[in-house]
Amino acid sequence: MSVTKQRDALQLLQTVGSYPWYVEKFIEHKKSKKNSPSTLLGYLRDFSFFFRWMMTEGLSTATDMKDIPLSDLNDLKKETVESYILYLQESHLYERSALLSNPTKSAKKEYSDRTISRKISSLKSLFHYLSALAEDENGESYLTRNVLAKIELEITELTPLARAHAIRAKILIDDEIYQFVDFVYNGYLAHCDTEKKKQYHMQNRDRDTALIAMILSGGFRVSEIVSLDLSDIIMEKNQLKLIRKGKKEDAPFFSDWGKEYLAKYLQLRDKYNPEPQEDAVFLAVSPTNPNGHRIEVRSVQKLVKKYAKAFGIPDLSVHKLRHSFATQFLRLNPDPHQLQAQLGHSKIETTMQYAHVLEDALGKAVNRTT
């Protein structure tokens, strides 16, 4: 199990007890279906928001989410659920943070249609389980009626071309890949307006540059890079030993270009003062833990956003670095099956979206046809 999954599994264990007993039953059911801890935590976050909304709206007399009885769910009407959907659509106009256990700046932003659909889909899964799959000691369903079954979700399915167009404006193409990495190492210092920021950047720029270059040199997921141990690197073969989604063992490659940045960082890794038993490749320090320890996924996401904003592509995210690699790979190596193997995709359809990102390539193909 990866470090991220171990952390999520622990968090799941620590938080599920604050939910009603029937939610715990649902989580156990999903565990038996081999849902990942990250997926199950996502369910809990969606349930928490809905339950808090119910209590705020007076739809339950419970004062603690854990105490909301099944009867309150059984009594919900279709109009009530539709009111919840309307609230999700307009919640950024109100104090949405009041329903969040850890509100962030994004609490003031509008929910996307996809986020709203996900939240309702989570509820649909719970209500379906309670009304159709689970049963009490008498063989009866926990819920006698499933109000969520009456709610239709209108999800606009994007074509591969539409998905590709959405990706295109948020990724690095051709020389931008090298320019971005060079900017992280050489250019960002000019954007540090305090001495403290300059010192922090100089302390971490080799790590940050190597981390970003590795993602761009092999299309790795951020969780895979964060979970890397020193023993997972096969330098002489430019390979990494990874546990992919679905607990699949894999050994994808990285480029010589990325290898140079990685090798330079590894020579300086000890400056983070890790404990002798610390095997994580990419390290961080904090006020509470001055010894080098494994960097967290959230920290990587934040540092990529920081550099991307200063670089002039604010929509570039750590996952878009993976998209950047995939698009560049197909541009130079038109073999989607090779890319599928490198990215660890289980379906070729997922890989094929990158074939449409570069519209110039598609346009040339159309011209060659006639």
TrEMBL record:
Pfam families: Phage_integrase (PF00589). The keyword Cell cycle applies. Residues 167-367 form the Tyr recombinase domain. GO terms for cellular component: cytoplasm. SUPFAM superfamilies: DNA breaking-rejoining enzymes. InterPro entries: CB (IPR044068), DNA_brk_join_enz (IPR011010), Integrase-like_cat_sf (IPR013762), Integrase_catalytic (IPR002104), Integrase_recombinase_N (IPR010998), Tyrosine_recombinase_XerCD (IPR050090). GO terms for biological process: cell division; chromosome segregation; DNA integration; DNA recombination. Coiled coil: none annotated. It is found in: Cytoplasm. It comes from the Bacteria. PROSITE patterns: CB, TYR_RECOMBINASE. GO terms for molecular function: DNA binding. Keywords: Cell cycle, Cell division, Chromosome partition, Cytoplasm, DNA integration, DNA recombination, DNA-binding. The keyword Oxidoreductase does not apply. Residues 17-131 form the Core-binding (CB) domain. This is Recombinase XerS. It comes from Brevibacillus formosus. The gene is xerC.
